[in-house]
Amino acid sequence: MSKQTSLSRKGHFLGTKIRNLRKRNNLTMEDLSVRCIQVDADSAPSVSYLSMIENGKRIPSEKMLEVIAEVFQKELSWFLDESSETGVIVDGKNKKGGIDGVALEPEFLFSKQQLQSALPEMLSQTGTSGRQFAHLLIRAHQEYNQNNFPSLEKAAEEVGKKQMPLGLDDIRGIVKKMGMKIKWFSRDPDQVTDESNNQTNTLVRSFYEPPGIIYANEELKKYPDRLKFDLATHIGHYALYGKDGLSSTNSAGQGLVEHTLRDANEIHESMTIDSSEILQAWRNFECSFFAGSLLCPKAAFKQHLNRTAYAIDANKAVGVSMSAYMRRMTSVSAYPHWHYFDAYLPGQLKAVYRGNGIPLPIGNMRPIQDPCPHWSLFRVLQADSGKPKAQISVLRKGDQDIIYSCDSIRTNDLAGNPHVLCVGIDLNPALASQGSDPQEIAAEIKKNCISHGGQAEIPANIKKELTRVSRILNISWVERGLNDHAIVICPRGGLCPREEKCTHAGRVTEPSLSMQEIRRQIILSSQ
User: Fold this and answer.
1) Which CDD domains match (predicted)?
2) Number of folded domains in the chain?
3) Do 200 and 273 reside in the same domain of the chain?
4) Whether 197 and 146 share a structural domain
5) Three-state SS string across 453-494, please?
6) Rounded distance, CA 347 to CA 507, Å?
7) Measured CA distances, 352 to 167, 338, 375, 404 (Å)
8) 359 three-class SS
9) Are residues 119 and 242 located together in one domain of the fold?
10) Would you tell me which of 50, 111, 443, 496 could form a disulfide with 501, CB atoms 3.0–4.6 Å apart?
């Protein structure tokens, strides 16, 4: 019996298998069609033809089926047997990401009235500011929704008409159309000294002043991609909120606090919940997300990522900064289990997203005294190659080991501070969706690493399996990371499973410089 005759006889099973494969890998029919075009444009099915194949109304040619098999890293014979293999489907879209929650029992203790009374006291006693608490709330909301905010996407698409790339003239045109004006100022980086006498350069890049003036630092003219992002955030403020004055200040560096903490009374007052701070923080997030959606509209950007296999240094083709490019990956990718870190020394995360809820290597709220130094971002911070560095790691999360792959790069911000951008994925769900046991694989990698001092070459059989997953996901740096040793990393240095535990003490303190005063100085000097 010829292969084509066999395909015709088994069309129903074939369509079901392709549909199940597509869904377990979180691909839309459009995604699968694009991936097939990358393999062989002449033999790739269209979206409508894929729909008919999945419904058993059309039978793919042998060549077309070979293209689909290549995307999913399957043998052609797998599609021709009649086993449905439905038991291994893992639908990541039905699971929420982020930190695991706890049961609020007894329920009466967690009423709105009780929390309104208890939270200010908790913040005061733990030394957590209202601003930090607001960021934690937003991060939990962001991770729970796996960076999926359709209303913000829609608002950005209405403004940008889904155009990509948007040039600087295009962005200026939108600013002008909305009735806003750009006013340039010149200001060098401010040296921020924290309570431990550590100095950091912080540069005010831009801010919005009602009713319609965008103040932009002359330094941004040297970096059009960063200028576009700043203007896009202020366009977002205007599009989402109109001309009101509760807008964010974009800065380079580890950030500036909105209030100067001068004495104990003010410090105590800062450790309370101010609803305006929470609203301000939420607007900052929405405007930033809007800017990413405006510059990288979802459909066009997803196609770009598929063409470039998620290379983190392919941002120039889109005309955005690398940080905006990497953050946008986490919300556009069909695979939902991402993380993103923007890390500064001596140990602060300026930005963080954890769609899979992995432990943090360092804090963006309070100091962590014993961070594990084997996280990729620490290793890259010590190197100044300027090139992406991929790493495969095994990390303990609760009572499970997870395998994750990341790609990191060291760069300088507009104020001249070195920092590391790191984006990565949890590979356990991808392995499970292919019928593999991620815990067994993680255990084998970890055992091999521990016996060699914490890092070792990945066994050939596992390397083959991870290569297959990398190609199915179409994320090139997963496979690139296989060329180096896998490394065991820990939530904290004190939990290190090595015979000689590695600890790395550090201290993070919050700079105290008034953003409001800087803004006032800029506005007065521009008059």
Assistant:
1) HTH_XRE (cd00093)
2) 3
3) yes
4) yes
5) CCEECCCHHHHHHHHHHHHHHCCHHHHHHCCCCEEEECCCHH
6) 7
7) 28, 11, 15, 16
8) coil
9) yes
10) 496
Strand partners, 149: none
Say how far apart CA 527 and CA 523 lie, in whole Å: 7
CA proximity to 78, closest of 34, 148, 21, 143: 21
- Alpha-carbon 384 to chain mean position: 23
Which residues have CB under 8 Å from 447's CB, separation 6+?
none
pTM of the model: 0.85
CATH number at residue 63: 1.10.260.40
CA distance 94 to 381: 36
Enclosing domain of residue 44: 3-89
Residues 274 and 150 in one domain: yes
In a domain, 97, yes or no: no
Same-domain check for residues 129 and 76:
no
Q: Is residue 307 part of a domain?
A: no
Do 82 and 196 fall within a single domain? no
Token pair 């690493």 in the structure block, residue: 449
The amino acid at residue 383 is A
Segment 35-40 long-range contacts (CB within 8 Å, at least 24 positions apart): 35/71, 35/306, 35/474, 36/64, 36/67, 36/68, 36/71, 38/306, 38/307, 38/474, 39/67, 39/70, 39/71, 40/67
Q: Looking at the domain assignment, is residue 329 inside a domain?
A: no
In a domain, 344, yes or no: no
d(CA 193, CA 438): 46
Same domain, 46 and 172: no
Q: Are residues 176 and 289 in the same domain?
A: yes
Looking at 57, 89, 121, the residue that finishes a domain is 89
Can you read off the two tokens belonging to residue 129?
A: 């500011």
